[in-house]
Design brief:
This protein is an alpha/beta fold and about 220 residues long. It contains 5 helices and 15 strands. The protein has one domain. A 6-stranded mixed beta sheet has the order 8-2-1-11-10-9. The chain has a 6-stranded mixed beta sheet with strand order 6-5-13-14-15-12, with no helix packed on it.
Length: about 220
């Protein structure tokens, strides 16, 4: 199939969740998913503040959750402050499994770094398609994260995840997440700010997915009309 109602572009788990939500409310919608990730959903576990999601969206991601906490620490630039917002960890592999059951393999394009667009026509290195509408999520997912695993001897004991808040992004470190893995280890994810951030421009990047009101508004708005 080379003719689609819409194409979703981006990295990480967000494009897949948006696609699944669109398919849930409009089962006959012809969706094309284009991602720069080598694997759908990327390779990094993602945190979501689940209570910010509407009920149908929470139900959608429930099968993809691999861990849950009763709260988290939000870092707005002055150090982490505890929040009672329920926080879940979503596995990109589960996102891929859900998508693979709903989308034809030809409708999923991975490892795609560049797309040319001219009207309805879209072309990339290994293919092309005609698309009525494009949902470009790069402003939230365009910065890949660096992830490292550290042991308990490298950090103080942490019982809840730490998430940087987009209200006060750090120009020095960018966004970050600290995720307890439950086995005396912790995953630390860092998103380096783009070079233009120092020139006063704003780029949310992938690191702000967990707290961005725009992301939750997008997901909650699908099918709400």
């Amino acid at each position: 199939m080379t003719d689609f109602d819409l194409a979703i572009m981006g990295q990480g788990i967000l494009p897949g969740i948006v696609a699944l939500r669109l398919l849930a409310v409009g089962g006959h919608t012809r969706v094309l998913l284009i991602t720069a990730d080598e694997e759908v959903g990327g390779r990094g576990l993602e945190l979501i503040l689940v209570d910010r999601l509407a009920g149908p969206v929470r139900d959608l991601i429930d099968p993809m959750i691999v861990r849950e906490w009763p709260g988290c620490y939000l870092d707005r630039g002055d150090g982490p402050v505890q929040s009672d917002e329920r926080t879940v960890l979503v596995d990109p592999v589960q996102v891929w499994l859900e998508l693979s059951a709903r989308l034809d393999p030809a409708a999923i394009v991975t490892a795609c770094d560049e797309v040319e667009r001219a009207g309805r026509f879209m072309r990339w290195r290994r293919g092309h398609a005609f698309v009525d509408r494009v949902i470009d999520l790069e402003q939230w997912t365009g910065q890949p994260a660096e992830t490292r695993i550290v042991g308990a001897d490298a950090v103080e004991h942490l019982d809840l995840p730490i998430i940087s808040d987009p209200a006060c992004p750090s120009e020095r470190t960018g966004a970050y997440q600290c995720i307890p893995l439950g086995d005396e280890r912790m995953a630390i994810r860092n998103w380096t700010p783009p070079a233009r951030a120092s020139q006063g421009e704003t780029d949310l990047g992938g690191g702000f997915l967990a707290t961005s009101p725009d992301v939750y508004g997008l997901l909650n708005g699908i099918g709400s009309a």
